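[scheduler] slot 2 assigned
[scheduler] job type: sequence-to-structure, two independent chains
[scheduler] chain ordering preserved from manifest
[runner] begin chain α
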Amino acid sequence: MSGTPNELRVSQSGARLDVVIDRPHARNALSIATLEEIAAVFTDRAEDDTIKLVVLTGAGDKAFAAGGDLKELGARRSAEDAAFLFDLGSRATEAARRFPVPVVAALNGVALGGGAELAVSCDYRLAARHAAIGFIQARLALSTGFGGAAALQELLGPRQAMRMMFESAILPAEEARQVGLADAVANEDETLDELVARFVEPILALPRELLSDFKAVALAGEDESRRAAVTAVERQRFIRAWASAEHWSAADKVLAGRSQKRA
């Protein structure tokens, strides 16, 4: 990868690549720089045949990624800004989804909004017991904005995905597992790191070429034409919602509330 990441911590141990969103002061919110670096890491390392597995997580124990960075994005209110943001977010989630070997999202805390979209772009989601996931975009009068609708529909089906969006619920880890948004939750006496190590052990025991074969077959099983159609409509609708008065009225209330807390 060209340059040194500032928003991510990237390290490799053996055949395992760890990518950590390193913005705990902002609950690992996805800034423009963060999304650019996620896209770059997954794109630049895709041809590295020393990697058998990627684990994506957030710094600390509060948040995997608490949505887009509203404070930074608050000045970007036009339809053109929305198109830029959607395309950048989609590039990051697509780079993770299409990475040639398995990608595991380790949910160390909440995955909300765009953070939930990033989580479902990974092959598997492993959750700490206190973790939670929520597609809460509707609370800001938004639809999904990082290309996550197709992945959510593949996991839950279009009608259940729509219900999750309009209910804007934040699902605790065990409930997320029950509906299919998490693949495993740490046991009561188990840390997230221990769960991840247990889950990835059989993966790391296999040859890289075989893992690449499995991933290629999994991607071939997805309906790419349907995904493209979903994403095209998703992009159009996100641009409309982002530039709407309803969205910015809700967003401004959130930003004002944060300012009052800091005062």
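[runner] end chain α
[runner] begin chain β
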Amino acid sequence: MKNIICKDHTVSSENFELVYDSDLEMYKTDPQPSEEKLPSYYQSADYISHTDAKESLIDKVYQMVRNYTISKKVKLIHSFNTSDQRLLDIGCGTGDFLKVAENKNWIVSGVEPNQQARDLAQKKISESGSIVSDLGDLLNTSNQFDVITMWHVLEHVPNLDAYIDSLKKLLKQDGVLVVAVPNFKSHDAKHYKQFWAAYDVPRHLWHFSQKSIKEIFQKYQMTLVQVLPMRFDSYYVSLLSEKYKTGKSHFVSALWNGFVSNWKAKRTNEYSSLIYIIKNS
């Protein structure tokens, strides 16, 4: 596959290259911003995972879908039948998932580097639940978790290998890691090409396939046991992609392309985003 030139449509309007690794079947954003500069690429009112904004059409669609999918996420982690129900949500945003999980008797913790989002999240959960700014803050404690969730987070992590090593240390033996990431092998990615919103350079540093996820975690004796679809993502991503490509949202076209992507994925299992269930073996 060829390398791809993508534009940062959210903050800087800079161009970045997606460099393809044929062995792992994944892309790497190049150049990757330094860890000091990377936070500046998140400073945008449009980066709505850090807010509870409900102003624009896209904001409203995002919030409506998020509220629905949160209940599905909690149902998923319940299905693992863990003993202590200790949950860590990395990239917890404004804390809505943690709030619902805590109401279902989970003992919750979160990691969220954005202070505005972290403050909102902390207000939504009980005082016993802690939200820290960095995963490293938990490594110096005795905390271990039955379930760790990363809903569209792994693609943002600068040092991938070191981060996965930390995840393994924080996960109990036979604990479950849930990783949701965009899938560049989906139909909507192929349709929109360099305008595909889920490339989201340079905030997304890595762009995964099913093969890459399986092989990366195998190095840490962590086993991919199940792959699940995130069907709503194709619609939301198509809505943003239409805007990036044409300057307008084109709601009908976005819905159609999202539908076609899901329809094709029934055969290929290459949905716009995928949830990977990974066991610490």
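[runner] end chain β
[qc] chain β: The two ends are 33 Å apart (CA to CA).
[scheduler] slot 2 released
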